[in-house]
Design a protein that fits this description.
The chain folds into 2 domains: 100 residues, 3-Layer(aba) Sandwich (Rossmann fold); 146 residues, 3-Layer(aba) Sandwich (Rossmann fold). It is α/β, with parallel strands linked by helices. Helix 7 links the parallel strand 5 and strand 6. The protein has a 6-stranded parallel beta sheet with strand order 1-11-8-7-5-6. The chain has a 3-stranded parallel beta sheet with strand order 3-2-4, with helices on both faces. Strands 9-10 form a two-stranded antiparallel ribbon.
């Protein structure tokens, strides 16, 4: 068996086209959707992520603002920035880029964002609405995975699903989204005994644990759909050969950049055993920003009802 690769690009393009159309209609009525991205410190990855989000806003016709604060910013000044954004009628979504510096009370910052502007879906109110199957904002990565499964006509109802990882950003909301669509869901974590056996029972396997190629053939039921959320790096020719075989592009990445990106799933094993598989990169990643845009225009729509 050779797995079908589930690519994010066509799914993200469909979502973005819908977002652009909604943004155009709202703007024509004088309600241009607005997203504020708050960035604290100089983490290169965070700057890259925020830059991509701001650029996507501009491409889709949304107003965007990037607020950059120095690393030494403390909790109280950051709370003041969030409160100001909460009051602004031209800002419909507030994104505080995580992770924040360790001296900042991150949970307090998340709680300070008004739930109606919580386009990341991290606020306790958003989480509670998801638990109760009420309308609200859902964390962007798991919401994007649901969009992907629908796009590729992969059924959820009546299936068995296993989620590797219980984070509030991916694992927990992912489990609830699948449960609400009538899957039977098991959440696996570091204390789960014989985790490979549990994973092998799944028709849909979602890996979000942050461990390079942790999911091997022993975890994958033949014919399963495997969703790889991990982002890790391999940096040696030996690792490239182990995980990617004779992939010239991967070898070139290591030679040029010193690393190549890999997920939490052993890619060669997944391709050999699964029916569907999200490659890394190119699988889940672009859906996160697309769903952030979708949440932002939804917030704008709600604000003018």
């Amino acid at each position: 068996m050779t797995a079908r690769l589930l690519l994010a690009k066509p799914v993200a393009e469909k979502i973005q086209a819908e977002v652009a159309e909604i943004a155009r209609h709202l703007t024509e009525k004088g309600h241009k959707p607005g997203l504020a991205a708050v960035l604290v410190g100089n983490d290169p990855a965070s700057h890259t992520y925020v830059g991509s989000k701001v650029k996507t806003c501009q491409n889709l016709g949304l107003h965007s603002e990037k607020i950059e604060l120095p690393t030494e910013t403390t909790t109280e000044p950051l709370l003041a920035v969030v409160e100001d954004l909460n009051r602004r009628s031209d800002i419909h979504g507030i994104l505080v880029q995580m992770p924040l510096p360790s001296h900042i009370d991150s949970p307090a910052i998340i709680r300070a964002i008004h739930p109606d502007k919580d386009v990341d879906g991290f606020h306790p109110v958003s989480a509670g609405r998801l638990v109760l199957k009420q309308d609200g904002f859902v964390a962007c990565t798991p919401a994007g995975i649901i969009e992907m499964l629908a796009f590729y006509d992969i059924p959820i109802r009546g299936t068995r699903a296993a989620i590797l990882g219980r984070s509030t950003i991916v694992g927990l909301p992912m489990s609830l989204l699948l449960l609400h669509r009538d899957a039977t869901v098991t959440i696996c974590h570091s204390r789960t005994p014989d985790i490979a056996r549990v994973a092998r029972e799944a028709d849909i396997l979602v890996a979000a644990i942050g461990r390079t190629a942790f999911v091997t053939e022993d975890f994958i039921r033949e014919g399963a759909t495997v969703i790889d959320v991990g982002i890790n790096r391999v940096s040696t020719p030996e690792d490239v050969a182990e995980y990617f075989g004779d992939d010239e592009k991967r070898r070139a990445d290591v030679e040029k950049k010193g690393y190549s990106i890999i997920g939490d799933v052993h890619p060669r094993h997944a391709v050999e055993r699964a029916a569907n598989f999200t490659p890394v990169p190119g699988g889940v990643g672009p859906l996160t920003i697309a769903m952030l845009m979708k949440n932002t225009v939804r917030a704008a729509e709600r604000s003018v009802r």
